[in-house]
Structure formats: C-alpha cells, structure tokens
Design a protein that fits this description.
This protein is mainly alpha-helical and 178 residues long. It has a domain of 117 residues. 79% of the residues lie in helices and 0% in strands. The protein contains six helices and no strands. Helix 5 runs antiparallel to helix 6.
C-alpha cells in the first residue's frame, strides 16, 4: 500500500508541470501584445510626420492631436497589459515549477520576482490591472465633453475614486513591508 501511495503522490506532485503550458502561452501572448503595441507606435509616428505640414488645416491638426493623445494612452494601456502577462507568466513559473536562477543575482529581480504565494502574484497583478483601469479612465476622460456642471462633478468623482484607489493600494503596501 505504501508503494501505491508513494507512486500516486509522485504523480500528483509532477502534475504541477502542466503549468508550463500556461507559462509558454502567457509568454507568447506577452510577445504578441508587445509586437502589436510597438507596431501601433510605428503607425502613430508615421501619421505624426504630417502634423507640422503647412497644408494641414487647423481643424485637421486639432483632430490629429486628439487622436494622437488617444493613441498614446492606448499604447500605455497595451504595454501595461503585456506587463501583466509577463508578471503572470514569471509568477506561475516561480510558484509551480522553479525559481528563476538567473534572476537571483540581479537587483531588478527583487522588484518583479520572488513571488512566494498566489496572494503575492494576485497583489502584483492587481496593481498593474489598477494602472490599466486608470489609464482606460484617462483615455475615456479625454473624450468626455463637459456640458453641464453634473458632467464636471462626475469627472471630479471619478478622479477622486482613482486617488482613493491609489491611496488604498499604497496603504496596503505599507502593511505588507516588514
């Protein structure tokens, strides 16, 4: 009976390697997102070349300016999403497979890696997702036309809620440090 128990526990323990598929898929998604966003940056820069053209009317320049600001916010959002996928991939690997030996000697690794639990991973991902939501709110706030005092009040409330979310996020950091 002890043999069967040992065999079964060995199979159970080695089944964690199935996470490698999620790590590889997450890294592929990370690379894909970085590629797409970088292509968007190149496309945006190609359009910006015409910004100072004397043939461009003031209205067209204003539209190009607004579109460019929106694209920049989308780029930040895309890079943040790619970062989420990267942290997720590295975190899964460290939690289920092995520590990343090459990262141990680097100072930067302590800021990204050394995820000790699923809660650590969730906290790190949550912070990046919060930043994505803030960037998305900023992207939408740029488009808002303030026509009534209530519109301004809603925008102010949204900004206050973002401030509160950032405050609470940083307050939680203070409790987690030893």
């Amino acid at each position: 009976m002890k043999f069967l128990e040992t065999l079964f526990e060995g199979i159970l323990w080695r089944s964690r390697y199935v996470v490698v598929f999620a790590v590889i898929a997450s890294m592929a998604a990370t690379i894909g997102i970085f590629y797409m966003v970088t292509a968007d940056v190149v496309y945006m820069i190609e359009h910006l070349v015409h910004y100072t053209s004397p043939e461009l009317s003031a209205e067209a320049r204003q539209v190009l300016h607004a579109e460019t600001i929106t694209h920049i916010v989308e780029v930040v959002d895309g890079y943040l999403l790619a970062t989420v996928m990267l942290i997720f991939s590295l975190g899964l690997y460290e939690l289920f497979i092995s520590e990343i030996d090459e990262a141990k000697g680097e100072a930067r690794s302590s800021r990204i890696l050394f995820i000790e639990s699923l809660d650590d991973l969730k906290t790190r991902l949550g912070k990046v997702i919060l930043m994505i939501l803030i960037v998305t709110l900023f992207q939408e706030a740029i488009k808002v036309k303030i026509e009534t005092p209530l519109d301004l009040l809603y925008l102010g409330a949204a900004i206050a809620l973002v401030g509160a979310a950032l405050f609470l996020s940083h307050a939680a950091d203070g409790k987690n440090t030893h």
